[in-house]
Write a structure and sequence with these properties.
Length: about 425
């Protein structure tokens, strides 16, 4: 249902829009505010930052790990020991202390090449994050531009209604004078007053629609919905699409296609990672150990050792219950699925481009026709008003002329708006916003 019929006129009268106190912004200004404040963009930027932060040699397993471990145990006990040799040890307050500390380094020297594949995979994941961020920016800019020009459209609709209200008021004045002179029936005057009130109601509803449109725009700008804002008075139309350029660049610029291409690359690298599980793994470890212990109730009362240690581990996978082979097969199927998705998206984007070009062409044709209609309807209304002054027409004929003019202005404004939407959609598809 149309929102126009759900608005309470009282709300509008209690909260009038004062243009002089509003912030006037252009479409470019609105886009700039959204790029800084829009929460969807901020979330996408954080996701992109996470993939960048994760892209390190250490996360790929190329670097060693170094750790210091220290353990200190102290005990206090009553000792009563008797050995087979006849020796006895009795100590009511025996104490013992054991300190073990080591500095250890572990480094994987070879893992079947997995670390290098993983680093490449992290590079691709970072690139995917960047493309996803660009895609979100493109979508947000599209939403902002469409919302911005929707406010412009609704303002123009209100201006059209107000223009007709002035004409209706003139008509009421003419019929009032004519009725007072006994030259016109009162029914004509009453009908003209009814028509005037209907247009006034339409103006009230239209003001409510403008307020709702501005709130949506502020929402996209991540501002308080009731932040005062004023937009341009007209829709700029000067775009000429380059069809041949679009066809040439589509597959290399569209973010939806680029994201799927990156996912294919990542899936291929995942298979290489799994293949590395079938190869030997070599790692080395080095440490410096320190051990100190004392025991007041033992024959060896103090022990201290320290020194370096170096070693290595070679792991040769022989049988892994078939898990590595199984995972590789699954990954190949997943890669094929991603490739299917890529081809499907290519078709969808190509179709979307063609539809947007068609919509642009037809909206342009409709706009040119309606410009002529608008001029004709305006001239017809002017002639009919003059005939009413001369008593050569009826209020019904004038009402029809007014309706024709209002409908023409409405269509003209809508054609301009939909042409701007088609233009913006083309730019989004080509990642030109």
């Amino acid at each position: 249902m149309n929102i126009r019929y759900f608005i309470l006129p009282l709300v509008l009268f209690l909260s009038p829009v004062i243009a002089a106190g509003q912030e006037k912004i252009s479409a470019e200004d609105a886009v700039g505010i959204a790029l800084k404040n829009n929460y969807d963009i901020l979330v996408a930027r954080n996701s992109s930052d996470i993939s960048r932060i994760n892209n390190t040699a250490g996360n790929a397993g190329m670097l060693p790990t170094v750790a210091v471990t220290t353990t200190d145990n102290y005990s206090y006990s009553n000792v009563d020991q008797k050995y087979s040799t006849g020796t006895t040890i009795q100590s009511p307050d025996a104490h013992a202390n054991s300190l073990n500390s080591n500095l250890a380094l572990n480094w994987t020297l070879f893992d079947g090449g997995k670390m290098f594949v993983t680093k490449n995979k992290l590079n691709e994941i970072q690139s995917l994050g960047d493309i996803q961020f660009r895609d979100q920016v493109q979508q947000t800019v599209y939403n902002v531009i469409v919302a911005y020009y929707d406010v412009v459209r609704e303002k123009q609709q209100l201006a059209s209604i107000e223009e007709v209200i002035k004409a209706n008021q003139t008509m009421v004045n003419i019929l009032q004078t004519s009725f007072g002179a006994g030259l016109s029936a009162k029914t004509n005057l009453l009908q003209s007053q009814i028509d005037l009130n209907v247009y006034r109601e339409n103006a009230i509803n239209q003001k409510a629609v403008i307020i709702a449109s501005k709130r949506l725009l502020n929402q996209l700008l991540s501002r308080d919905p009731d932040t005062p804002v004023e937009v341009a008075d007209s829709i700029t139309l000067n775009y000429v699409p380059d069809r041949e350029e679009f066809k040439r660049r589509l597959l290399t610029t569209n973010t939806s296609i680029l994201m799927l291409q990156k996912e294919v690359d990542i899936a291929q690298l995942s298979i290489q990672e799994l293949r590395a599980m079938l190869l030997p793994r070599l790692s080395m470890n080095a440490a410096f150990n320190y051990l100190y212990s004392n025991n007041s109730a033992n024959n060896l009362t103090r022990n201290q050792t320290y020194g370096p240690q170096v070693g290595g581990t070679l792991t040769i996978p022989i049988f892994q219950a078939g898990n590595a082979v199984r995972q590789i097969k699954v990954s190949r199927v997943q890669l094929q699925t991603t490739q299917y998705d890529l081809e499907s998206v290519k078709l969808q984007v190509t179709n979307s481009l063609q539809n947007s070009l068609t919509a642009f062409d037809y909206q342009l044709q409709l706009l040119e026709i309606e410009k002529s209609n608008s001029e004709l309807a305006k001239e017809n209304l002017s002639i009919t008003m003059e005939r009413l002054r001369l008593g050569q027409t009826t209020s019904l004929e004038l009402h029809q002329a007014q309706e024709s003019y209002v409908n023409s202005l409405t269509r003209l404004t809508n054609f301009k708006y939909f042409l701007k939407v088609a233009e913006t959609k083309l730019k989004q598809i080509m990642s030109e916003l």
